[in-house]
Structure formats: structure tokens, C-alpha cells
Amino acid sequence: MNSNNAINSDPKSFAALRFLGPVMAGARRLFVLSDRIVILGFVLATCGLGLLRIFKEKNRISDCCTLAVEFMEHLKAYVRSRGSDLESYGWLMHRSNKMQSQLGLSGIYASYRPPYANFQYSNYPIVLNMLPDLRHALDDSILSNSPIVHQYSMALQDTLVRHLGSLHDQDERNNRALRNPVVWLREGVRVVVALPLTMLGWLGAIGESTVSRLLSSRIFKAVSAFVAVVGFISAVMGITLGWDQFIQMVLAWFHKAF
Questions:
Q1: Where are the beta strands (DSSP E) in 91-213?
Q2: Residue 139 and residue 124: Cα distance in Å, rounded?
Q3: Which site from 46, 70, 111, 170 is most exposed, i.e. has the minimal number of CB atoms within 10 Å?
Q4: Residue 16 pLDDT greater than 90, yes or no
Q5: What are phi and psi of 142, to 5 degrees?
Q6: What is the DSSP code string of 127-169?
Q7: Confidence label for 242 from pLDDT (cuts 50, 70 and 90)
Q8: pLDDT computed for residue 23 by the predictor
């Protein structure tokens, strides 16, 4: 009672209290707003990482298409020359390993029987084997006039055409992804989740092929999708309610559930 009378009797104290009240309320609102800005910033940064990943994939596909088209053009030039264009053949051989690696499983026959042979190969790499066989056929005076040259040439060209079709399909999916912010978030989460494996690959702790195999596995895709969904829901709730209130709501739900 006496303290209240003292405050009321002191105009300066009363004015200070009236001033501090709005200041504290404004500071609290600013704190909640800053939380929401931080959450929104994390979401936008993750979407930015996903967008960069999509553009990087588009550039990779463009480089693959360029190599496949150039490989086909040099192959056609070599076949048209009937084996005399050794410069084109040298270009093809120089890039045959890279082309075979880029083709992946689409560049391997599960089983293949060579012309006029009574045996067959399993897991037959098309480019690495058929390119030397094509030169051998063109250099042979008898085989050069047989259908074998045409068979080798068409097998190589058909493989490249199928590969280009697959690359164009991937590029169309990436073009659609560029117009979908949800995909940006999903791809950005994949970049974040894959960061430990990527760092191990950079440091040489595990091989790049192992990293690529793990990142393309269904388990990794399922984990990254789960993280993306949980992160998206958490971000929306955090922006809507504020981080403190959202955490309190999650803790209350957790206590009720367990």
C-alpha cells in the first residue's frame, strides 16, 4: 500500500513505468518477428541451394548432350570415309571411355552375339568394343563390303540416340522443376543432407563412385524427402506461431503422446 502510494506520489517513476511498458512489448514483438525472419531466411536459403542444384544439373545435361552429338557426328564422318578419316577415329577413341561412362547401363548389352559367331558376351560395353570392331571391319577388304559395317554403325548410333532422348527427358523435368518452389526446397534439403557424404568424398575418405551410389539410393531419397516434409511443416508453423510458441506446442504434444 505504501509502495503504491510512493509510486503514485512520484510523477517521474510513474512516467518511467508508462514508458517502459510499450518498450518491453515492442521488444517482445521484435524478438518474435526476428525469429520468423530467421526461419524464413533459412527456408529461402535452402530453396536457393535447390535452385542452384537444378541449374547445375541442367549444365551437366547440356555438356552430356554436346559430347553425345559430337561423338555421333565424328562417327558418321568416319563411316562415310570408309575408314580413311583417322582424325575422326582418333577423336572417337580419345573420348570413348568418357562416352561409355556417360552412357551407363544404357551403353551395355546384357548379352551380345557378334556377327557370324557361335558364342556370346555378357555385359558387353557397346562403345568400347564396337568402335574397334568397326575399324577392323572397315580395314578388312572383305568385311568392308559386308552388312557388318552397317550393323556396327547403326548399333552405335541407336545407342547414342537413346541416350540423347533420356537426356532431353531429364532436361524437361528440370525445366518443370524451375517453376516449382516446392522442388527447390526438396532439392535444397537434399544438398544439406548430402553435405556430410560430399565432404567425405572431397576428403578422399570414400570414393566418388560410392558417394554417387549412396546419393542415388532409395534410402537417401526417402530420408531427404522426410526431412524436407518435416522441415517445411516446422517452418510454416514457426513463421505462423513464432518459434517459442511452436516449441511449446511441440513439447506439449510430446508430453501428451508419451
A1: 108-112, 121-125
A2: 23
A3: 111
A4: no
A5: -90, -50
A6: HHHHHHHHHHHHHSTTGGGSHHHHHHHHHHHHHHHHHHHHHHH
A7: low
A8: 45
